[in-house]
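Lecture notes, unit on protein representations.

Consider one protein chain, 321 amino acids long.
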Amino acid sequence: MIRVFHGEDSYTISQEIRKIKNKLGHRDIASSNVSIFDNHPINFHEFLSTSKAIPFMSDRRIIIISNLLSKIQNKVKSISDEWLEFYKYVDEIPPTSEVIFVENIELKNNGNGLNAVGDKCEVKVFQKKKGYELENWIKNKILESKAMASPNAIKKLSWITSGDLYRLENEINKLSLYVGDREINVSDVNKVISSSRQSNIFLFIDAVMDKKAGVALNELYSLILDGVSIGQIINMLARQVRLLILCKDLSSKNLSREDIGKRIFINNNFVLEKTLAQSNRFDFENLIRIQKQLLTTDISIKNGTMEQRAAVEILASELSK
């Protein structure tokens, strides 16, 4: 079977893959039957040879291929012709091998990426949860933790985490332990969940990309309430933009995720995944534009032509246009 899992909801994608892996049996046996190809450029013949290998003490093996189809969609030159016409080789893959293409962005319906795999595969889109769907997910996750929460607490959790399911899972676990047998309320959420500066930077960048000036301003205000100075905020934003530019440049050179992390000195997996995902949402032109506006804002503050708070508010509005 050939599957394509794509979309921004990387948490649900990881859970779906975990379920598939669990069907392989004991952990030791499963690990022997899972192959991951994420070091680009991926050698097609090595992949094909792996797919034809007999599973070890199991009826099948799983092969995961990360972030290849998005590169095909973006016409990265180092992709071999076999990958561009993968659909021609599908029948050579034995039924004992399950191939899963994983992408952390949503592919275009008629783009080169999906066209390369053809119509003999199962395609599933994992869109970021929002609104009622997100609140219902939070409610069910809290119930899984043997806890309960008020509707307002659920809404607060949804807002404060901006729908980040990895963070929500972590915060729900902390809240469940904190309240014990009673219901989680808004006050508990405010006490237990401390604003993360790094998360606010990520949320600000996301808001800029989605052209949500109000959300961008909220994240900046959260940073200010955390005691971060205006100068520090500009420096943090400038650093993040620089990292996004570096990620795009290194990704275009087909470096693996681990190598990119080493090059930009990011060891935290969550921060690295989020930075890579954000870099895929911007083109170089937009990132250079943001960088120039940050520089202009910094100069206007330092030469006294604009008050600090007003300068940052205008910056957030301008970037979100």
